[in-house]
Design brief:
With 1316 residues, the chain is mainly α. An 8-stranded parallel beta barrel has the order 1-2-5-6-7-8-9-10, surrounded by 8 helices. The protein has a two-stranded antiparallel sheet with strand order 3-4. Helix 11 (280-308) packs antiparallel against helix 23 and helix 46 packs parallel to helix 48 (1261-1290). The protein is globular and about 105 Å long. It starts with a helix and ends with a helix.
């Protein structure tokens, strides 16, 4: 059975099995009834006979009656072999369905037992109580929970044999089992449930189990997104509510709104390591698909909220926002525009990502009076109050402590107001306030500031507030209008200014700012007032108005626009700058939702705010606008080949032949240099072109859609620097694709950024905006011999015009002037540009401070020093050159902007203007928002050298500075469990991984770098799988400091997250395990002797493993004969090939088919081979007692041995011997099989001596029982598989036999609950 279920059963000594057995009998009986109808009584009786023989043989084998068991097993095999294939296949399918139904019953029962008092161990309540009992203070516990960042990365690894259609039906059956459990159902209702089960099981039988076509990478991505929609979408809010309740119970404080300890990532569409089917276009399309799905899911929630939030009482800020939306809609209607598409931007309004803005005429007369009335109360507030800021640590401790205000809040002293923080694993940047800010996530704080504060300088809001300061406090609206008309202010800018949307702090009667707690208390009093005040009931301020519906209606329209834009993008439809507003960032969507949330609290609707609306906000923090942030993964050799082709073309030599020192020297010089690296005329192979295209696509998508760039098979420090250089070149080439134009915040309808900016849609955490779906402005192919691009220290009087925006504006002429007028647009078809000088007004530049200026500057591909440059290379064929806004691409277009034989004058002029525009603040450049780079150490040798490699990398001056400026002194390192196990065996790999983590922790401490370890674990023990709780709890001390990334793949995704209740439980397990590993880390080895014993055990086991797998002359032929390895490709379960390279032996075979093949013949060789020899030799040296003590006291060693013991119990050497006897062709191959089975017996004996058990899994009888329930159904399928393999290898063209084999593979995989 699967390790996921084992995770739940491991601690259940008194696990009640009767309900599970009842469910299995019920589902089995219903399947029997179905079979009688579908295949007839005669064939059904044959199914029953085969099942009975298998059951009896299994029972006798357990009772050690070997001869009787062998006789019955042989009789069963003879009867199956004598059957025609047409009769044997229904029997095989029936066994497979019995096993699947048993799995469904087990999963359902694991959920059922969590509701039994005392059975749900490892839950929040229990773990929090344990930690507090150990001496952790409530404040420390609260801080640790809020700082936790766990990311579960769903991969596309091909280990899920069941079609998605079958997975859906299995989920439906599980739901019906839950319904059948209900004690309040009447007899008729229970009968109705049984009828539904019959229908589902019948449909299951009549559905083809086989995939008839190989899935594409896009199909795999749809599967990952389907899991979000199917279960995670509902599980995350439930998980957050449980966490919040436990936190409030044990610390007295609720979880801050902006805190989500757990997020999700994906490799689907981004993992191109050895998979030629994942191209740059596929990555681009998957990003669009994820955005579409996110918009669709949010849209459904907003539709429900619009009906739910029907109340008319709202805060002043929300009324202002609703009125602004109404005014803008009416203005658009009068101009003949569609409603909602030109809505004024408030919290949640999406900025136009061209240099043009909304053309909104300044209102006059009654309209202006009404607008002033709406804003008067907000604007005419005392501006002497200091800004209410909240740093990340303050955000983590905010929300409401209790419904009773503290003394501080009663006295009016300020407290930080909670903000918005979608957790992510970096990269980080240093904000202007000195705090670390994350790239690609919504801001970690929301600034609530009164008018007149520094961040409003240069905005229409500040201009209006300043111009009216001289007026008497009781000035009429007419006086205000007359004053504004005389001052020349444009009220349309005020309408689009974000101040009315930005939450303005509430003050008490003395003008002191109210804390969030006090605000909620006031809201509770307001609720009572609304219920009792006759004046309020009879005279509503806005009769018949529904401000929440107005605001959410605007949100809905933008979500519709977003969804439509993604559809058009995937269809290749062009977009222009006048398209509807849409959501391009998570913070833009979050602000109107937060405005509604706090408005409800302020007006007495807090209980409503804590319902569906809070759930939606929590989802936004968890999933963002792309649901699953996509990692990009590529093998290091592909980067080496790309750089080698470049250096050869430039006559610099062969990069591939250089030693490490020379590579570092070259890469560092290029990273510090002034000129682009790739020449314009350089010819490229398809492989090189694809690598460069991938980097360009990643640069366009940006951190809103992407996670880490993972370098598989990383060996040296230069592997990381190579990716940094290629990223830099891509960001330079992409240019303005990702970034908003450099207009002032007011013109862009954005909150003016300040310090660690909290605006919506403008800048992320005080640095560059990451606009993903902006217009592609064309590749920048420019010689920079007479102009240098400087990224030195910032000059505070520097211009506010974004540098790269200025360049691309000069090139394309497609940007609009800062005053909102057209400057002549060049379409995406390459029409001639009409450049204009649209510099920012000087007075606005002067008003901007350094933080504001930094945030308004888009990143630029810059070089830190000056000098003559070279020429930038061409964008390869097949790379997007110039496309309209959106992710749509015009592939293969020629660049219409660069003339033959040289650089256009507009480019040179723009570069010269950039030089005069002022220096940027340190580190602000195109690579400021680089994708974080994570080296992946996989083989045993690489794991042993990982510490040296990272020490060397941190010693490179350029990278250490890059790490500080761009990534916030944060490094992510991925560890490969699969390939290390295939390379050295499970025991040796486990110890190498442990030592590697210890060394990486030490190296990062030396260089003062924070470390996140990314664990690339598979589903099986052979690939690092097993109960997640035990795995996390056995990590080296200090390796889990509240952060963790980990992969989930294949059948484990469905097993762990396929049902809402199971997913919720798994998320809780992740959080509690990481929390315990952080606050109460596991014990290290007690003495140096234990380490020495592990070193010796690892050395002996690795040598024994490699002697068999890599050095035995007949092993490869034996492996291919006695397993269906060569036939696995026909399963169509993944888009990538089974081998990294054609031909070769085990070294070129991927770890998944390597494990999958050995699972089929029930030997599971990679999971245990080598361990028995190591233990036997150490016992012979007199270390048995010491090792037994290690097992009892060292969590790492105990969990490793327990997992291997568990996999040994799932092996069956009777079945493995049958494969050997029937399929091995030579005597040498059969002799090798005898040796391996002997090694298995030695391993079992050695493990039992170590653990002190009399039989395998003695400490988990429930697991033994569950395995025994499955074996009688798996055995007949194995017999059929052997017979079919014999026939198929004699007649490889027989499609019927091939289909039959695939059915047996599916059946065994279902029974073992493991594939790869």
């Amino acid at each position: 059975m699967t390790e996921h279920v084992y995770d739940n059963f491991h601690f259940a000594a008194d696990y009640p099995l009767a309900p599970l057995e009842d469910d299995c009998k019920l589902l089995g009986a219903l399947l029997d009834d179905c079979l009688k109808i579908e295949v007839g009584d005669e064939l059904f009786h044959k199914v029953e006979r085969i099942r009975s023989l298998a059951q009896c043989a299994s029972d006798l084998s357990k009772k050690h009656d070997v001869e009787a068991a062998k006789f019955l097993a042989q009789k069963m095999a003879d009867e199956l072999k004598a059957m025609p294939i047409d009769e044997a296949m229904p029997i095989c399918r029936a066994c497979g369905h019995y096993l699947n139904l048993t799995s469904i019953a087990e999963t359902h029962h694991s959920v059922r037992t969590t509701r039994i008092p005392g059975m749900n161990s490892k839950n929040f309540d229990e773990v929090f109580g344990t930690l507090i009992a150990q001496g952790i203070s409530p404040e420390e516990l609260f801080e640790s929970v809020c700082k936790q960042r766990v990311e579960i990365v769903l991969t596309a690894h091909p280990t899920q044999v069941n079609r998605r259609t079958l997975q859906y039906k299995h989920s439906r059956i599980a739901a019906l089992l839950a319904q059948h459990d209900r004690s309040d159902h009447t007899h008729d209702e229970k009968e109705s449930t049984i009828e539904e089960l019959v229908r589902e099981i019948t449909a299951l039988w009549q559905t083809d189990e086989l995939r008839r076509q190989k899935p594409s990478a896009l199909d795999e991505a749809r599967g990952g997104l389907h899991i979000v929609e199917q279960s995670l979408w509902a599980a995350v809010p439930a998980y957050m509510r449980k966490l919040n309740a436990a936190l409030k119970k044990h610390t007295g404080r609720e979880l801050p709104i902006g805190t989500c300890p757990l997020t999700f990532g994906s490799w689907m569409g981004g993992d191109r390591d050895g998979n030629p089917n994942v191209t740059a276009q596929v990555t681009h399309n998957v990003a669009c698909l994820a955005r579409w799905m996110a918009a669709d899911l949010y849209l459904r929630e907003v539709d429900v909220l619009r009906f739910e939030l029907s109340m008319s009482h709202a805060s002043d800020q929300l009324w202002s926002l609703a009125n602004a939306i109404s005014h803008q809609t009416h203005s658009s209607e009068r101009r003949g525009a569609a409603p909602s598409t030109q809505a004024a931007t408030a919290p949640g309004a999406v900025t136009r990502h061209s240099s043009g803005g909304s053309k909104v005429s300044s209102p006059t007369g009654p309209e202006a009076l009404k607008m002033l009335a709406d804003y008067q109360q907000t604007v005419r507030r005392p501006n002497s109050q200091p800004a209410m800021t909240s740093t990340r640590s303050q955000v983590l401790s905010q929300r409401i402590v209790a419904m009773k205000p503290s003394k501080q809040s009663q006295s009016g002293s300020q407290r930080p107001v909670e903000g918005l923080a979608i957790p992510s694993i970096g990269p980080f940047v240093n904000g202007s306030d000195g705090n670390l800010q994350e790239v690609g996530s919504p801001p970690s704080n929301i600034q609530w500031t009164p008018p007149g504060a520094a961040q409003h300088k240069g905005s229409a809001f500040a201009a209006f507030a300043g111009s009216t300061q001289g007026l008497p406090p009781n000035s009429s609206q007419t006086d205000l209008l007359a004053h504004v008309a005389g001052s020349g202010l444009d009220l349309s800018e005020l309408a689009r200014a974000p101040t009315h949307a930005q939450p303005v702090p509430r003050v008490d009667s003395q003008g002191k700012i109210l804390s969030a707690d006090a605000l909620k208390m006031r809201g509770m009093h307001a609720a009572q007032y609304h219920k009792t005040s006759i004046d309020t009931m009879l005279h509503s301020r806005h009769a018949g108005a529904t401000p929440y519906r107005t605001v959410l209606g605007n949100v809905r329209q933008k979500l519709l626009n977003t969804r439509k834009r993604m559809e058009d993008t995937l269809a290749g439809v062009a977009h222009d700058d006048d398209d509807e507003e849409w959501y391009d960032s998570a913070e833009a969507l979050a602000q109107p939702l937060l405005a509604c949330y706090w408005s409800l609290w302020e007006c007495g609707g807090g209980i409503v705010a804590e319902g569906r609306l809070l759930d939606l906000i929590r989802r936004l923090y968890c999933f963002g606008i792309s649901l699953l942030k996509m990692d990009v993964r590529q093998e290091s050799s592909r980067h080496t080949d790309t750089l080698d082709s470049i250096t050869r073309y430039l006559d610099l030599g062969s990069y591939a032949e250089w030693d490490e020192d020379k590579r570092i020297e070259f890469l560092t010089a290029e990273l510090e240099g002034k000129r682009p690296l790739i020449p314009a005329a350089m010819p490229m192979t398809n492989d090189v072109r694809e690598v460069i295209s991938t980097f360009q696509t990643a640069a366009e998508l940006g951190p809103q859609s992407l996670g880490a760039y993972v370098i598989s098979m990383a060996h040296t420090a230069s592997d990381v620097l190579a990716v940094e250089l290629l990223q830099k070149e891509a960001l330079l080439t992409v240019g303005n694709t990702r970034f908003v134009s450099s207009k002032s915040a007011a013109q862009l309808n954005m909150v003016a950024p300040v310090e660690a900016s909290a605006n919506a849609g403008a800048s992320m955490h005080g640095h560059v905006p990451a606009t993903v779906h902006g217009s592609r402005a064309g590749a920048l192919h420019a010689a920079t011999s007479d102009a240098s691009i400087n990224s030195g220290d910032s000059d505070q009087s520097g211009g506010g015009k974004g540098i790269m925006s200025a360049v691309m504006s000069r090139i394309t002429g497609g940007e609009k002037a800062e005053n909102g007028k057209d400057s002549g647009a060049a379409g995406s078809n390459g029409a001639e540009a009409k450049p204009t000088d649209a510099a920012e007004p000087q007075e606005l530049k002067e008003k901007k401070g350094v933080p504001e200026l930094q945030a308004s500057l888009p990143p630029v591909a810059t070089r830190p020093d000056k000098g003559k440059g070279g020429s930038n290379g061409p964008t390869p064929k097949g790379t997007p050159q110039s496309t309209p806004r959106g992710l749509a691409s015009s592939w293969g277009q020629a660049n219409p902007m660069t003339p033959k034989g040289g650089v256009s004058a507009t480019v040179k002029t723009a570069l010269q203007d950039m030089k005069q525009a002022g220096k940027q603040s340190s580190g602000v450049g195109a690579w400021k928002v680089s994708q974080r780079v994570a080296p992946l150490f996989e083989t045993l040798e690489d794991l042993d050298n990982a510490g040296k490699v990272m020490r060397h990398l941190f010693s490179v001056r350029w990278y250490r500075e890059q790490l500080r400026r761009v990534y916030g002194d944060h490094q992510e390192v991925m560890l490969g469990y699969s390939d290390s196990g295939k390379d050295a065996g499970r025991a040796a790999a486990a110890w190498a991984l442990y030592r590697c983590q210890e060394e990486l922790v030490q190296v990062c401490k030396e260089f003062d770098v924070s470390l996140t370890l990314f664990h690339g674990r598979g589903g099986t023990v052979g690939r690092g799988g097993g109960p997640m709780y035990l795995a996390i709890q056995s990590q080296p001390p200090g390796s889990v400091q509240g952060t963790l990334r980990i992969t989930e793949q294949g059948e484990m995704i469905q097993a762990k997250f396929g049902l809402v209740a199971v997913a919720e439980r798994q998320l809780e397990t992740y959080s509690t395990a990481v929390l315990l590993a952080t606050e109460s880390p596991p014990k290290p080895p007690r003495s140096q002797k234990w380490r020495e014993l592990m070193d010796e055990l690892s050395k002996i086991s690795c040598e024994d493993y490699r002697n068999v797998v890599f050095r035995h002359p007949h092993f490869i032929s034996y492996f291919r004969k006695v397993t269906p390895e060569e036939e696995l490709g026909g399963l169509n379960i993944g888009s990538r090939p089974a081998r990294r390279k054609k031909g070769g032996g085990v070294e070129t075979l991927r770890a998944i088919p390597w494990i999958f093949a050995w699972t089929q013949n029930r030997m599971a060789l990679p999971s245990w081979l080598g361990l028995g020899e190591g233990l036997k030799q150490l016992y012979g040296q007199g270390h048995k007692a010491e090792m037994q003590q290690m097992y009892q006291e060292w969590p790492f060693f105990q969990s490793t041995m327990d997992l291997i013991e568990m996999i040994l119990s799932k092996c069956d050497m009777r079945i493995a011997a049958m494969y050997d006897h029937q399929l091995a062709e030579t005597e040498e191959e059969k002799a090798l099989g005898v040796v391996l089975r002997g090694k298995y017996e030695e391993t079992v004996k050695a493990v039992l001596e170590l653990t002190g058990h009399h039989r395998l899994n003695q400490n988990n009888e429930m697991l033994r029982h569950l395995i025994d329930m499955r074996n009688p159904y798996i055995d007949p399928v194995n017999v059929l598989q052997v017979e079919i393999l014999k026939r198929l290898r004699n007649d490889p063209e027989d499609q019927g036999l091939r289909d039959a084999l695939l059915v047996t593979i599916n059946g065994i995989a279902s029974g073992m609950r493991n594939t790869g």
